Batch of 4 targets.
Target 1
Amino acid sequence: MKKTIYIVNGPNLNLLGTREPEIYGANTLSDVEMACDKRCKSRGYALSFFQSNIEGEMVDQIQKAGAKGAALLINAAAYTHTSVAIYDALKTLDIPVIEVHISQPAAREAFRQQSFVAPVSMGSISGFGTNSYLLAIDAAIDSLL
Ligand code: DQA
């Protein structure tokens, strides 16, 4: 049985903690990774945590999650709203996929209203700050029970 939760993060999330803290909060990406690692371990899973500013590298990691992961959480950041390549990659997976956002895109600019991730996800967790990741880990693991 596969026991690794994959998390893929998109562009500019490497700047968490300093990027628009009024929207994205004070936690850094490594804070998020540590909290996710702890949550996965407490539930008997390992974590693979990845960030890239490059769309194709995200596609490679999504394919790896499909081959080796129990579930995939993805915060595709701005590529959520633009990327057919990420949509196509997610569509090939037969593991649970959960869309994650720190902010609530539905309450923001019009260009954030479209998601190429949502139609190929089991569900979306948005708007809870970086706690969205932990809620999504629980949702992913619960869906595997
Ligand atoms: C985000 C929301 C996106 O609209 C934005 O482009 C991001 C971060 C979030 O986590 O709230 O970079 O995915």
Target 2
Amino acid sequence: MSFAKAISVAGAVMLGTALFSPVFAQQNLTLKSADVHPKGYPTVEAVERMGAKLEKATNGRLKVQVYPSMQLGGEKEFLEQAQVGALAMARVSVGVMGPVIPELNVLNLPYLFRDSAHMHKVVDGPIGDELLAKITANDKTGLIGIAWMDGGARNIYGKQRGVAKMEDLKGQKIRTMGNPMFVQMMNDMGGNGVAMGFDQLINGLQTGVVDGAENNEPSYASGQHYNYAKYYSLTEHLMIPEIIVFSKRVWNTLSPEDQKLVMKFGKEAQAEQRGLWQDMVKKSLEDMKANNVVVTTVSPEEKKRFQTAVKPVWDKFGAEHKTMIERISQVQ
Ligand code: GTR
């Protein structure tokens, strides 16, 4: 073979390699992920475990670095950063995803799920897969839906008093997540809803911009919100799943094999987080007790009143999700 021919054969081989085995297959990459919660929180732990599996399966080529405790801001910022590719992953509440992916907003309707088991069944089944696919299919957002996380039930807490009935919320400014649905929900429940990032909440409670907020036990306890608002009332008005999303920009630099691994370990994280969540709820209740939190129960009759009161939220925000609401209610 002449020298020139050898060069051109080598060139063709190289070209073939470039075309048929993409260069990105071997890249070393640290996938940055963000969470508002601290290290040890079930969602942070689940993503870290997902990262450890990814690292092992790729011989250290892919790693995950979780930035916990709002180091990178609040969840709206996480979504923005993931959209531009500054973050590879974000673990956020569906509360903030609703305004971005309209199909997901159905999960934010108050008193949608009968109980946690119902919510688990829905996100673990075909509806869950379908809604994750809606994120990926949405061209504007630049995000991929990876997995669901448990977020328990949300309860109202405040500085002044417990909430056993609607009237107890009168005149109270209660922080909600940034989604118009929740502001209206809180107003309908008898209080005054104030939308605010989770990262602003402690300051809001300290300065009196709000009198209270609403969240599950692990968020309330791990954030030590009991230092600012001691009355925790079991209204259980929302049961919002949480979610791991992936940046499309970063996703498109991964080989199909690596993408599959991310999906696989994401699904495993979804299952693992559930056990971690149960333990964390127990631990949080102990922590709340040790910190003299006053827990108020809400009678079934009063819960019914809250449910009736939020009907305008359903009328306004639920109308477009009629079919999905029906399907969710049929999941046993
Ligand atoms: C928590 C949730 C966070 C965030 C926070 C909030 O329960 O885990 O993702 O949504 O609530 O109220 O902003």
Target 3
Amino acid sequence: MKLYKNKVELQHILKPFFDQKKSLGFVPTMGALHEGHLSLVNEALEENDCVVVSIFVNPTQFDKKSDLKKYPRSLENDIDLLNSIHGDIIVFAPDATHLYGEHILSKPYSFSGLEFEMEGRHRAGHFDGVGTVLNLLFRIIRPNKAYFGQKDFQQLQIVKKLVEIEQLPITIVGCPIMREQNGVAMSSRNRRLNASQLNQAAMIYRTLKDVQNRFDQTSISKLKTRVKTLFEEHPEFELEYFEIANVNTLKSAERKRKTNTYRAFIAAWIGGVRLIDNIALN
Ligand code: AMP
């Protein structure tokens, strides 16, 4: 395990890999690592000669300062976890001014409208922040492949668009959602829930499964009403959105078309923590 905070030192250690044309896999994270992150790292290890994991809580993708402040951080623990799966992972954990320079600002992007749906509608500037930090990291690390979880499905689609826009020769690999035994999607934010809230949070996945099971025989408007009612029966939650969207455009679907592929998406608050999850429908 090698930890770098400096981009020049990181590039120096990566140079032999470029020179020998070895394949480099990259897993960007914000740390507080869990099995979901490790599944991405394992896939990257299987498919590449060398793997870089970045650990950086990116300030420009947070719309609320309080959320950024409360975001869990555990660098030492993260390093131990990565060491436990493989001894040769390279970790890049820069601080914000080193990565961005003096002005920690995001660049405005246009992701063909993907940025206006769901997360984009509820978190102002979020995807500009995501695009900016990934563009910086991609240009420093120059990976052949970069790994992203379907947990953040909208982000995954936007990153595919980002490499097109920035003309970066990087293959974006989407990886399945890892879940706790009760179905809750693993997330660094789950650390902020107590045991009872973590149990209650399983309702999000139960609802998504219910929608998946009914999708073939039920209209989208009936499914939407049903989900709204289910959440009303669980006042511990505040439902921010429920959407059934086309996976390519991420636009909310009103009617099903056989040729389209859909996913259901939920964002909900419990105990002051915002959770997101999604599921494939057809
Ligand atoms: P984050 O540290 O939350 O920015 O996540 C870093 C990467 O891990 C992103 O590509 C996420 O989509 C992915 N990820 C987070 N949670 C999970 C999960 N439960 N299963 C699979 N991938 C995940």
Target 4
Amino acid sequence: MITLDNYDFSGKKALVRVDFNVPLNDQFEITDDTRIKATIPTITKILSDGGSCILMSHLGRPKDGPTEKYSLKHLVPALSLKLGVTVKFADDCIGDEAGKMAAALKPGEVLLLENLRFYKEEEKGNEEFASKLAKLGDVWVNDAFGTAHRAHASTAIVGKFFTDKVCGKVMQAEIDNAQKVLENAESPFTAIMGGAKISDKILIIEKLLDKVDNLIIGGGMTYTFTKALGGQIGNSLLEADKQELALEILKKAEEKGVNIIMPLDNLIADDFSNDANTQVVKRGEIPDGWEGLDIGPETAELFAETIRKSKTVLWNGPMGVFEFPTFAKGTNAVADAVVQATEENNAFSLIGGGDSASAINNAGMGDRVSYVSTGGGALLEYMEGKVLPGVAALS
Ligand code: AMP
């Protein structure tokens, strides 16, 4: 695989797949620019070599072609400011106009194409569409790790039309950090798994059982474990058909000598709302009409104690419904402990995308851990051992 630093972009037009899928408010202002910031080093390297950039991305999930809400033109001012270059914009990602603008691009210039997903062909991985995109550049750079698990036209298929295919800096960092945790983790290695469902995380949990010393289980998925073990979970989240699987995971963990740490107590609510009535109860003692929406204070301390002593930490998924401040305490306590492990115990900490990344960034602690992944699903699939189409297309 060719890395960005090993390629000279001088005089080249680089077609760069970036992940500019950023959240916008009602005024089309960017509310979190993490993904844009992440791609700046890749773009800057291409420009400083004397190349030009044609940037392509998706934004949101447009259903019926061009939609104002999902137009990438809203990103042009912020991107221009960050790059110190006036970014040009093509209001169609293929076609004559995009072709002319790309052809006229001079070294040091940047062109942003309109949302790729305004064409259904993008997600279908359509070859003809990919070939039209490919005509715009001389070299393809893939820096969109967040969509690397999808075989879309711009993330994978387009690679067929290029001899020169280069791995961007975000993509490289994501792969290097995931590899570091999977292959060179220093012990004690603690994985913290949270979020809504066991079914989404089962493959990664199984893989991690061969690697970790401690597996902390929090979030909505704990209730399926608790129920399977005979506890009462009231109206908490349950995947009834995954109870057997939950017991199997516990058995495998025991066989492999992995220390599984589950909640001791839960913060429960009588409604799925920030203003619900709440109380703390022991695990497995949730009355009917109540649901567990966060770990309790004893659990937060128990989890934090293990995390703080770790040398490697992988965290994926919140400990509760952290979108409601009332139920964010457990997630914030875990975020604090991960920062302490990193800063005071010199641990390597990888925050696995999606909601855990939002949680740590919202708490203002994103730059106090070793690495915050930009890819949720993609990171999980990579760590499960799957070949990601967007990575495979680079070799
Ligand atoms: P995931 O995408 O699987 O990491 O799940 C993240 C989602 O899980 C977040 O939106 C949380 O609000 C939700 N979640 C975490 N804990 C709970 C819980 N105890 N009950 C319901 N939802 C939860």
